[in-house]
């Protein structure tokens, strides 16, 4: 007989409290609601210091930061961009919105990141950009990717939506390529609900991006006192973050050690608590490359023997919300139409997508709940 549900455990929840509330209240009290104001500037400065990057532009989302990157690099129809198919739709949407073409490359079976050894075979005379996605906050092989980009004269735009607070070879994810993009969505390690950042060490790209972000105007230069009036100087859009959310984000960034520390403790408990399942051949636990640090963003297991959906629904019946992802982009209805049915052959992506299960993860998930989740998980396998 199935035991009755003792607890309900959500998959993800933002960890926010009094300090975040007071920060938003302060922005409102100061009537600082627009974008690129005092709080945005302070938060951008903090991001530059924390992640050792020259320029940080806050945006309304990581999707918009990626879109801003594509606009800044003047991606044009016919240009090609190399990316994994095992990612969120945003990584590819921003390419197609410019009229450029996504070229999907398979992933590594251990890290679920783009397989750097397969990138060169995908390069053509039309390739302009490589977009590595740091899955679960684990850095892609950025040494190999930067080397390929240099030899073929390509830009690198890091989708570091999940990479906030993790490093590759001692450098913060999102600061290694020409441009990097963070997400501060409600599900992320550091969150302001909806938000993102565009990072670069290239001052020319930063100046171009700040104009596009502000509807094609040089308002940012005006606010710095560099011009005496601001005007329309290029094609642009509206990607600035409101000061209220920038104020909240600053508090979250200041809590980075605590928020990521908690996630890592949860991650480590899951890791040791699933060792036996792995020894029995029932699951495969996450594998980290020696150059990558872990920010505890996601704990994902591969469930062997085609049992993922069965295990996921058994956990749900016990009140525990576990989720899968991603439905691979290359075989999504939109991409099948786009490529007239010529679906790329990406066997590792297909296998990982069919087998992957994520366990609940958020910074205030108690270790008692983590132990409970592990007990339930071990039981459903028996
Ligand atoms: C890999 C990846 N890229 C981009 C995004 C988009 O981020 P946002 O929701 O901030 O637009 C996400 C969101 O989950 C993501 O996981």
Automatic annotation (TrEMBL):
Pfam families per UniProt: DegT_DnrJ_EryC1
Record-annotated membrane-spanning stretches: none
UniProt keyword Transferase, yes or no: yes
Gene Ontology molecular function: any one: dTDP-4-amino-4,6-dideoxygalactose transaminase activity
InterPro entries hit by this protein: DegT/StrS_aminotransferase, PyrdxlP-dep_Trfase, PyrdxlP-dep_Trfase_major, PyrdxlP-dep_Trfase_small, WecE-like
Main EC class the enzyme belongs to: transferase
EC number of the protein: 2.6.1.59
CDD domains hit by this protein: AHBA_syn (cd00616)
Keyword line: Aminotransferase, Pyridoxal phosphate, Transferase
Family: Belongs to the DegT/DnrJ/EryC1 family.
Protein name: dTDP-4-amino-4,6-dideoxygalactose transaminase
Organism: Candidatus Chlorohelix allophototropha
Organismal lineage: Bacteria, Bacillati, Chloroflexota, Chloroflexia, Candidatus Chloroheliales
Designated gene of the protein: rffA
């Amino acid at each position: 007989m199935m035991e009755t549900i003792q607890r309900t455990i959500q998959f993800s929840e933002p960890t926010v409290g009094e300090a975040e509330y007071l920060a938003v209240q302060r922005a409102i009290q100061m009537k600082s609601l627009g974008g690129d104001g005092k709080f945005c500037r302070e938060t951008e400065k903090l991001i530059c210091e924390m992640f050792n990057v020259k320029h940080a532009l806050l945006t309304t989302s990581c999707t918009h930061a990626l879109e801003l990157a594509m606009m800044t690099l003047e991606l044009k129809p016919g240009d090609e961009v190399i990316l994994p198919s095992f990612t969120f739709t945003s990584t590819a949407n921003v390419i197609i919105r410019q009229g450029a073409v996504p070229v999907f490359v398979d992933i590594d079976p251990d890290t679920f990141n783009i397989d750097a050894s397969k990138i060169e075979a995908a390069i053509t005379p039309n390739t302009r950009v490589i977009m590595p996605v740091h899955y679960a906050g684990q850095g892609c092989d950025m040494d190999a990717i930067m080397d390929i980009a240099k030899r073929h004269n390509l830009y690198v735009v890091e989708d570091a939506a999940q990479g906030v607070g993790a490093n590759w070879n001692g450098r913060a994810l999102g600061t290694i390529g020409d441009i990097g993009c963070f997400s501060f969505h409600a599900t992320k390690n550091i969150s302001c609900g909806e938000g993102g950042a565009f990072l670069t060490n290239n001052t020319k790209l930063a100046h171009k991006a700040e104009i596009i972000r502000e509807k094609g105007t040089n308002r940012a230069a005006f606010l710095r006192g560099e011009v005496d009036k601001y005007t329309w100087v290029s094609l642009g859009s509206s990607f600035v973050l409101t000061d209220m959310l920038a104020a909240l984000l600053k508090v979250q960034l200041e809590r980075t050690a605590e928020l990521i520390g908690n996630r890592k403790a949860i991650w480590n408990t899951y890791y040791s608590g699933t060792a036996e399942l792995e020894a029995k051949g029932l699951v495969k636990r996450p594998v980290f490359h020696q150059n990558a640090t872990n920010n505890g963003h996601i704990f994902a297991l591969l469930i062997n023997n085609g049992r993922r959906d069965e295990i996921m629904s058994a956990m749900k019946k016990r009140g525990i919300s576990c989720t899968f992802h991603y439905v691979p982009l290359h075989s999504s209805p939109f991409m099948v139409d786009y490529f007239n049915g010529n679906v790329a052959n990406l066997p590792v992506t297909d296998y990982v997508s069919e087998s992957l299960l994520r366990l609940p993860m958020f910074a205030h998930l108690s270790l008692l709940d983590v132990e409970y989740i592990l007990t339930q998980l071990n039981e459903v396998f028996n």
